Amino acid sequence: MSGIPVADDVLGADVAVLPISEVATALNVSANKVRQMLRDGHLIAIRRKGELYVPGAFLVKDGVVKGLAGTITVLADSGFSRTEMLRWLFAEDETLPGATPVNALRTSHGTEVKRRAQAMAF
Is the pTM of this model over 0.90? Predict the structure, then answer.
């Protein structure tokens, strides 16, 4: 699993996570493709008990949440580590629809989420 950036496990116990095999099944791709998505910055993983897990909130019925990869790119360009990205995506923010950036992305408010991510760079 070398070469795959992994965030520290900063997620609360109430945040559902999926092992790579379940992410692959949900996306109808191979586990290797999911690992490539992690390397390419389209998803973020944590490690629990030696295994990689992806937050379930990153997936929707037809794939990865729209705007997630772009938001990860904006945060990376702003100097955020994977851990800081994960913390920010799941941080409570009552001024956002959905109360967290990841939920705002899930409810088609990606433009606002990316705007806020870009604003943090300055």
Answer: yes
